[in-house]
Structures are given as structure tokens and as C-alpha cells.
Amino acid sequence: MALKVKAKQKLQKVGKYADTYRFVLSPELYIALAQNKVISEAALRSGISKGVMQACWDAAGEVIKAWATEGHSVALPGLGTMRFGLRAKSVATVDEVKSKLITSRRIIFTPSTDLKDELSNTAIQITCYDKEGNVLKRVTSADEGVVEDDENGSNENENENENENGSNENQNPGGGNGGGGTEDGTDES
To answer: Residues 6 or more apart from 104 whose CB is under 8 A from it?
Structure first.
């Protein structure tokens, strides 16, 4: 199995490559799997009836939601952990601390080492498209499969492709496995 990526030739409107065409890579997104399909497959693989699997799935979801919203870091077997996070503005004095400093509440997912290893070892198939949408070539990876792992959701080998808005499509600002600062440069943890 391989992950599918598209490299589309796009006109860059801002930034270092303004007014030039560049190939911008982005994942080919698949359709969302219906919960019923996931439950059926899990029931088949575990030997548990579909009804029991549905009850377990629902109960696990409720427990995860309850504990995560209480501030716990919750383990997701085989996947990693999820926890509550936020973005907030910083203030100079304790008297200025108020809940309205919080600009957003988030869920932060930290993948397990096994999941990152699996992703690193999964082949990548890239389909290259010109600006008219014609397929130019297909490439299959033989690279080391670097997985994002730092607090800002990027890595040392990150490419410099920019999208039309001038931001890097391969970055996940403040995302990934937590971290990420706030608008004014403070930490969110």
C-alpha cells in the first residue's frame, strides 16, 4: 500500500517565488470511512460481534471525550495520545490574567512511535500535474520517509514549496504533536 500525493503546478502570488509556477505537493485525500464500515472491519478482525463492537466503540468514545475534556492525556491504543491544548495571549501582570486571553481551544494528537514508524515505512506515490491538470509523470518514493516530530509540526527537511497564499502547505502551524506558540510568541502548553 502507498500514500498518494499530488504535485500540482501552481502560480505563486506572493513570497520568494512570486509570479513563477512551482510544483506544490499535497496529499490526495481519500473519502472519510463511514463509522459502520470501521466497526464492521474491527468486529471481523477481533472475532467480536458487530453489536458488541458498536457498544464498545460508543463507550470508548464517551470515555475519551469525558477524560480529554477534564484535562487528561488519553491513550488511543496503537495510535498515540490526545490531550487538550489552547492558544492564549500573554500579559505582563497577574491582574491582567482573564479567561478571555484564550483565543482558541484545541485537541492535540501525539502519534505513537509505532504509528510514526509505520508512516515512515509506507511508500509514497506522487502524480505530477501541469497547470492545465494534465498528468506529466508519476514517481514512487525510495526516500527515508521523514516524519514530522518537532513541537512546531515541521522538520529539518521541510521543502520550500509555497501555496497561492504564500504559506507552506506542508506545515501544520502549532499542530502536529503539540506545542506551537501563540500569536504573540508565547507557548501554549
So the answer is: 86, 87
Gap between the Cα atoms of 51 and 159, Å rounded: 46
Task: Look up the CATH architecture of domain 2-140.
Answer: Irregular (4.10)
What single-letter DSSP state applies at residue 33? P
pTM: 0.59
**How far is the C-alpha of 82 from the C-alpha of 175, rounded, in Å?**
12
* Separation between Cα atoms, residue 88 and residue 188, nearest integer Å: 7
* Chain segment 90-137, per-residue pLDDT in tens: 999 999 999 999 999 999 999 999 999 998 889 999 999 999 999 999
Q: Is 122 within 8 Å of 4 (Cβ atoms)?
A: no
Residue 67's CB: how many other CB atoms inside 10 A? 16
Say if residue 4's pLDDT is above 50: yes
C-alpha cell at 16: 520568494
Kindly list the domain boundaries of the chain, sorted by start residue.
2-140
In single-letter form, the type of residue at position 152 comes to N
Q: What are phi and psi of 29, to 5 degrees?
A: -90, 135
